[in-house]
C-alpha cells in the first residue's frame, strides 16, 4: 500500500472527497490516511473543508493535524477557523496544543488580521497561550 501511495498519491479532489467523508463521520476509518494524502499533495483547495473540520469543536480527532496543514498552506481563508480554535479548551489538552498551534498558523499567514488576533491572544488568561502569543509578536 505504501509503495502504491508513493507512486500515485490521491488527487486533490480525491483528498477533498475523503476529508468530506471524515467531516460528516468523525469515526471514518481512513482519517489518518487522508491526512498523509493531503501532505503528499498540498493544495489550498483543502482550506474550506479543513476549516469546516476545525470549526466543529466536538469532532476534534484531527484538529492538530488540520492546523498543521493550514499552517503550511498559509491561506487567509483559514483565519476565522484558526481564531475559533484559539478558544478550544479540553480537559485532556493540558498544554493547549490546539490553541497554541493555531497561533503559529496565524503567524505564518501573517496578515494584519492574523496579527490582531494574536495580539488579542496575548491577553488570554492561560499563560501558555499568552506567552506564545507574546513571543510571536516579539518576532513579528
TrEMBL record:
> Is the keyword Repeat assigned to this protein?
no
What the entry lists under InterPro entries is as follows: ARM-like, ARM-type_fold
Which key words are in the record?
A: Antenna complex, Lyase, Phycobilisome
Which superkingdom does the taxonomy of this entry point to? Answer: Bacteria
Q: Which GO terms describe its molecular function?
A: lyase activity
Question: Would you indicate the residue range of the signal peptide?
Answer: none
Q: Name one GO cellular component term.
A: phycobilisome
> Belongs to which family?
Belongs to the CpcE/RpcE/PecE family.
What name does the UniProt record give this protein?
HEAT repeat domain-containing protein
- Which source organism does the UniProt entry give? Nostoc cycadae WK-1
- Show the taxonomic lineage: Bacteria, Bacillati, Cyanobacteriota, Cyanophyceae, Nostocales
Amino acid at each position: 500500500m505504501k509503495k502504491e501511495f508513493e507512486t500515485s498519491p490521491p488527487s486533490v479532489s480525491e483528498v477533498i472527497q475523503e476529508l468530506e467523508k471524515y467531516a460528516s463521520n468523525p469515526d471514518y476509518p481512513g482519517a489518518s490516511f487522508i491526512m498523509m494524502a493531503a501532505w503528499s499533495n498540498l493544495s489550498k483547495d483543502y482550506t474550506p473543508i479543513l476549516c469546516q473540520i476545525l470549526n466543529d469543536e466536538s469532532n476534534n480527532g484531527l484538529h492538530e493535524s488540520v492546523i498543521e496543514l493550514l499552517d503550511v498552506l498559509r491561506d487567509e481563508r483559514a483565519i476565522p477557523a484558526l481564531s475559533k480554535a484559539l478558544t478550544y479548551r479540553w480537559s485532556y489538552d493540558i498544554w493547549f496544543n490546539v490553541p497554541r498551534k493555531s497561533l503559529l498558523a496565524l503567524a505564518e499567514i501573517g496578515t494584519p488580521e492574523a496579527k490582531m488576533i494574536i495580539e488579542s491572544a496575548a491577553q488570554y488568561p492561560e499563560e501558555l497561550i499568552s506567552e506564545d502569543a507574546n513571543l510571536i509578536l516579539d518576532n513579528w
